[in-house]
Amino acid sequence: MSPIDFVLTVIGYILIGIGAFCQIVAGMGMNRFPNFFVRLHAATIAAIGGSFVPIIGCSLLALSFEELGDVRFFLAGGGFVAAVFLLILAPVGSHLLAKAAYFSKAAVLQPKVVDALEEDIRKGEVHE
Amino acid sequence: MSELYELIPYLVLSITALVSTISVYLAIIEKDLIKAVLYSAIQSTFYALIFYLLMVPDIVLVYIPVSVGLLPAILIIAVKKTEKYEDVTGISKTTSTIILTLVVIFTLISGYLLLLSHAITFAIFPSTDVRTLARWFLNTTLWWNRMFSAMSPESVTAIVWDYRGLDTYFETSVMYLAIIGALALARYIEIPKKVFKEEAMGMSIIGKMATRIMVPMILIVAVSIALHGHLTPGGGFQGGVTAAVTVSLLIFIFSVYFAARFFKINTAILLRIIGLTGIILAATITLIIGFLTGQQAYIFQNQPKVIAQIGLPYEIGGNLISGTLLIFNTSEFLAVVMGFAILFLLLSIPEENVMEVIRGEVE
């Protein structure tokens, strides 16, 4: 195993470990956070930290695994593309969910510390 | 004596089915939720036994840890965290006795009928001959002898469009008829003509931008799934459904008026008919060639057979195209995309317009 491959393998395993940690944290957040919007934050942690990061790690692992031959480039390429898709789409999904839940008043905002959007609506800067 | 021996699995089957039905009933009427979870676990155990008797050991291996171990554990944790007793007023005792009696009678009768229907042949369990057939299909989908082969490495597509082509043709017709039915129901209803305004309609600009990036990529993946249908898992229907996602994205993220710019319903119907014509053409192309050259041929014939020597080329310039399979996949892709586009557009017409048309017809 060449030094570059060794480094790639180690980075890949570290990224997968970070992913597992993020999944556990996100699960705890989903269980304990008080309302919809902060739980959505936990779900986005699961999507980015728990899916995007380990997929990058898996791609690096595949890239460094020479026994696969040329197939490893296909595997790694597919992994990177899927990770970029996730990186683009997961925040968009969370944003749309939060917006829909806020304006349809389906989710109760309780306990509330500060609501900047509500103040902006009151001032007339933002319209539904 | 051997017949009696063969009856034993049926007896065990009926008894297990009965016991699992009873435990389901007990799980439903039990007020103590922990006990209800245990009853449900008992039912899962007996289901696992049934699966084993029906010769699916791989499913048993998944089923036992998940539904006997994992699921009750999670449910018990959930019950511990919430309330232990169900506080809704349940079914009264006489009703429950009646229901239990009915369930038992139903199970006995259906089990008896099952036993009777299979007692003649003793053939409920899959015989080993089926596996020989499967092995034959798997080994000959891409073979040196074109007479016995579909010349496609993807055995599912080969079976769907070559060995069992007529089945798939009728499945496609069923979907065609369903969409014709939807169009007939909505025959005077049209998408209202409104100009799409970027700021006023649809979701936020973030969602719109992400959709603009994603839609071409989804289309590329869909076309690739359809065109590689004879090489990799997938095919015309799968690719078509993937491409239909873009239509629903356009409708939900932007607006139906935005989607109607790209997909006129009449154009979609026309393209769908073109796709279906392609399917019919691919099904009869060997027959047409045989008719013109005066040789024998069949419908849904792909490669030459022993007494029908006409076949389509299975490769062009070294690229495997598997004869008719490529034409089938492309046409099915077109037909399925346009079918789903029509359905999505029809479903997203505002209700006021539909009601207007209905009132206008009645008056």
TrEMBL record, chain A:
Keywords in alphabetical order: Membrane, Transmembrane, Transmembrane helix
Q: Where is the signal peptide?
A: none
* Entry keyword annotation includes Transmembrane: yes
Cite the GO molecular-function annotations of the record.
Answer: sodium:proton antiporter activity
What is the recorded name of this protein?
Cation:proton antiporter
What the entry lists under Pfam families is as follows: PhaG_MnhG_YufB
Stored InterPro entries: PhaG_MnhG_YufB
| Top-rank lineage group of the source organism | Archaea
